[in-house]
Amino acid sequence: MESIEVLVAHIQGLSRSPDEVSHLHSLLKQSEDALRSHAARLAPFLSQLDPSIHTLGYLFLLEAYSSGSISGEEASGFLLTVVEFINSCSAEQIQLAPEKFISVCKSFKDQVMQLGVPMQGIAPLWMAVRKLQTSTEQLTTLHSDYLLLCLLAKCYKAGLSILDDDIFEVDHPRDHFLYCYYGGMINIGLKRFEKALACLHNVVTAPMTTLNAICVEAYKKYILVSLILNGQVPSFPKYTSSAAHRNLKNYTQPYVDLANFYASGKFSELEACIQTNQEKFLSDSNLGLVKQVLSSLYKRNIQRLTQTYLTLSLQDIANVAQLNNPKEAEMHVLQMIQDGEIFATINQKDGMVSFHEDPEQYKSCGMTEHIDFSIQRLMALSKKLSSLDDNLSCDPQYLSKVGKERQKFDFDEFDSVSHKFM
Amino acid sequence: MDLSPIQKDLASKCYSAVADTCDDLMLKLASRGIRYQDEWPFAIHLLGHVFANDLNSARFLWKSIPLEIKESRPEIAAVWKIGQCLWTRDYAGVYDAIRGFDWSAEITAMVVAFSENYTKKMFQMLNSAYSTISVTDVAHFLGMSEDRAIDYALQHGWKLDSSCKMVIVKKPKTVTERKLDPSKLQRLTEYVFHLEH
What we know:
By secondary structure, chain A is mainly alpha-helical. Chain A is built from 23 helices and five strands.
């Protein structure tokens, strides 16, 4: 216990300048074992420190405390301590020991989930992500924890503030899988199907040597969202890993069958397929999405009509789309016009619908702004890619591999790879 | 519990901002482990989402409200009825839900603003979707009596064919801006430069 008091005194004394802090850091690292052995009795020492000034020291103590078991009565006190810490800590000091910070936040998340209060963790974890990141383009381990809490608390909109950042740096592949999968689920919940498809696509096509469960679940949802959005499931792009390419369909057979029945356009067959596989869909928690796939079939059939007809009676639309009467057809068409999925005008007097071309002429100011914005983003992305490419071509590992392979083919050709790398 | 940010939005009639303000404040209170549910203005929060046409968030909020609170505060259920009608596209039901409840003083102005907004949106929808439509349906969509509906339509330039009780829709002329300004030239130069390199 004495050593702890001495340590606390050091923390209080050595937290002013960056030099002092790095000296403190080495002292703290030496005392890690001592801290862990006294984990249960560290709570009173925390109150002697100010988390905003003594961030690093506070972090080490807090991490040691959270690594021990926390009893039921202490749990809510622990949560409040962590929340206070995250809100007031200094980001620079956090960056010196990020693994410890992540460990504290993970214990926090586990406690919050155990107590069944995920909403309590949302605001603090958001702050934690922002303080841990070196830039908004970096993906941290905490991103997926944050999204998980948003999903559990059903605060989907809160997830968007993190999801809408463009990510360019990923430290650990596992973070990426979970982040994109949960991101897909949040977008599905908010019915942003295009964004959901992009997230799920990232999981399915990510580099992997063996298939993992996250990828399988993501592919199931990918099929369903593709059907709702585009009416078909695209084939795997070239850059998909061979592990995914060869094995994904084996693990998702009911969904592949669903996609095939959907392509036939027949309502009754699709319904029958859903009935047969209902238990599977239910146990995967995908039944809601599957029902949305079913109702999207009406829309798909009506959209197909626009490609063939200029005008069509409501009765004919009802027949083709297998609806009960012209009034139902009218309501469906009205909904599709409201959602912008179709361009048409209903003439109640004659009971006819006229289909139009997309009236957008891409000449307005608003549209040029939009196109400009997209081009700017593309240019920024292109610059990032060329700098990535430049960095890679200077990487010693890459050069040695290229140098070795070159040697097999061309002895006479001027070899621009220095022999130093071979 | 300090609910002043929400009151500020209501006082300044920034109804579209109410949902975000409520969300942020609710998460902040939750993070402190405070049991905010008893005093929280769920009706206003729910109406904020409905006003911003964010029916998904409205649904999730409704699901998270504890049962005792739903039962003891009928105003919340009344707001949810509006959201439900919007979700199921029961266009006329929305008006019934708005008129079928005696709103408290706090929320009345917001409900009135929503109702006016909704009527305008319905009219725009009819404009874009129909070339001719029966008077009964117009009255149905706008939540008005047939005579008032006819007046409203005629005011906006539609024509009435009284023989078959149909209204002929006149689409408003939309003027889209097409002016270019010099900064566009700068941007175009940047694009060409980028493509050349």
